[in-house]
Amino acid sequence: MNIYDVAKQAGVGIGTVSRVLNGSLKVKPETRSRVQDAINQLDYVPHSGARSLGSGRNHVLGLVVPFFTRPFFIEVLRGVEMTATIHGYDLVLYNIETNEQRDHYLRQLPMRRRVDGLLVVSLFCDESEAIRFRKMNLPVVLVDSYNPLLTSFVVDNISAAQQATEFLISLGHRQIGFVNGVKASSFNFNKSDDRMIGYCQGLASNDIPYNPELVCVTEWTRAGGRKAARQLLLLPQRPTAIFAVSDVQALGIMEEVKAQGLAVPEDICIVGFDNIELAELLNLTTIAQPMCEMGKQGIEQLISEIEKPEPPQMLMMDVELIVRGTTAAHSAPVGARA
Amino acid sequence: MNIYDVAKQAGVGIGTVSRVLNGSLKVKPETRSRVQDAINQLDYVPHSGARSLGSGRNHVLGLVVPFFTRPFFIEVLRGVEMTATIHGYDLVLYNIETNEQRDHYLRQLPMRRRVDGLLVVSLFCDESEAIRFRKMNLPVVLVDSYNPLLTSFVVDNISAAQQATEFLISLGHRQIGFVNGVKASSFNFNKSDDRMIGYCQGLASNDIPYNPELVCVTEWTRAGGRKAARQLLLLPQRPTAIFAVSDVQALGIMEEVKAQGLAVPEDICIVGFDNIELAELLNLTTIAQPMCEMGKQGIEQLISEIEKPEPPQMLMMDVELIVRGTTAAHSAPVGARA
DNA sequence: TATAATATTGGAAGCCCTTCCATTTCCTTT
DNA sequence: AAAGGAAATGGAAGGGCTTCCAATATTATA
Questions:
Q1: Which helix (H) or strand (E) segment is A241 a member of?
Q2: H-run or E-run covering A64
Q3: d(CA B201, nearest CA chain A) in Å
Q4: CA B300 and chain centroid, separation
Q5: pLDDT of the residue at B188
Q6: Cα–Cα distances in Å, from B330 out to A7, A122, B167, B169, B268?
Q7: Contact by Cβ (8 Å): A200, A212
Q8: Is the dihedral of CA A303, A304, A310, A315 positive or negative?
Q9: How far apart (Å, rounded) are the C-alpha atoms in residues A122 and A65?
Q10: Could you give the CA distance from residue A97 to residue A110 in angstroms, rounded to a whole number?
Q11: Rounded CA separation A102/A185 (Å)
Q12: Which residues of chain A have a pLDDT value below 70?
């Protein structure tokens, strides 16, 4: 059962069948419908492998994403899936949970030529890898990560973190804890550093000295958040507010704070990052990233680069501080010290 | 750059290269390493389309899943992804959000021959579709859905719902609300019905009359849960406990109950279904489904059917009632009526 | 050492499409 | 009616792999 059978059944040549299959305009409507009928009658379906061999196009996009079950990635994934579908691309999922996996996929998989393009989310991509992509002629778009050789969608993590920090300062907080995420070498590389910088800048611009004791680095999980909170709450002069680099960690912090009998926001204010669905549910003040939109635009850019190569560019996306119930003015007078 | 180049570089025939590529045992170790070297030197990567054309195998599995961003499906997806990767299969995601999409994918996509097998989650699959799969010789495994012509992994929704209901009764509850999910024609078909049956059986076996006012049908979302709760709480004789067919709905119910100034579990007890991650976080009593395990076993079965066809079977998976903080003994004496 | 059996290898044929060019058909235009 | 151009069509030539059988190399056996 192949294209020849269809051609015979419809009484046309295989070229015509192929043109119908590919929606070419250069087919007389009458012929087209004759072919269409034959296809339906025979329940014919083109062989995707043969197609890809013949044309060099798979109509498949690869998505390389770490820990795809985490809310942030799910949201990105949602935008990605929707957009890929709209454009008629299939989506294959490459989940990364270890550095070895990352290296493996970024080196080997893209070259399997199974995908026409690759969207890489939140993973650091080094120069040699980027060069390799270009050499292999594989379009790659980065989301929430940056490389000068590849089109990258980023948010301004520095200014976002600074904004969050300054917001807390404006509420009267001076002891502001900062919970960062581990870098796990290849994961979220720029992100961690940039948000740290933003935090420091926020302090500096308000003449608040940087206190390393107030900074924790921990896993990007709820458990990580709890751990960090436990540590911060042990400080002789404990923070009155904590800024975490992800909502998930912020939720862990919230749990721990409450578990220790402290009130949010009265005793401790909390600000997260991402604005995952749960943030709204649990009334968490946070920096909103346009996650779904990042996925959407990433895919659109990728498809456009597949169709017509472009020089790499950096595209900045906006964040927004969303004030909810986990922040409030610091109860002690501004400037008061213990 | 193809297999011929590699063969020349290694000084062997293409057949040998192919055998090395496919891990055939019938290659002298020395030859194998020579070929391997050539592959590495040339940065050669086989063309997946050509491969699939030649062999008829894609090493790709399709996952057809509704609303994949919902926690239940994410958990299943996690098991699926992990297992597919372990077995060296790529995974392509077909997300279904409307009936048209469902019909489209179940009819057209599987036939694209892009996938070697299909795992269908929580979607009703009618006989004509099942027959079609078999005719096309496409292995299909169902998870959380049932069709006699296809291998199906299910939980005993009837007895699970009955168990939940009887648990509430054992706590002294008599007015037990039941929040079901809409059937949306093709979605979660059996599930809704079965859990309703279980609820009724639970009541019946304790001689509690069935009261249709206590039953709501609503979307499988938090908003749906809130809406249902709002309705149930308006009843002149309001329920003292509510059993929802999903945790997500149960969380919505919880929100609404609290928003109305009522306490959980003191005023209203709540039981959910699924045991999503959030259920633990929010201390929700629920029926735990082995979601991740369902995905894992589904894929393993699918792969085994790809390798060697089997007659369809129904595989039942166990559920477990997990008692947490949203349930407690009914405060009014058993049998008391307003 | 000769022979049989086994392990390894080479490469032609085939898988099913797309593409492209040559050909045919259909309109216009003169 | 003839000629020219445009639109539609047919099909040969790939494209890169797997498979299978024939051919060769190796080892065991007599």
A1: strand A241-244
A2: strand A60-66
A3: 34
A4: 14
A5: 58
A6: 73, 49, 12, 9, 9
A7: no
A8: negative
A9: 7
A10: 17
A11: 11
A12: 109-112, 185-189, 332-338
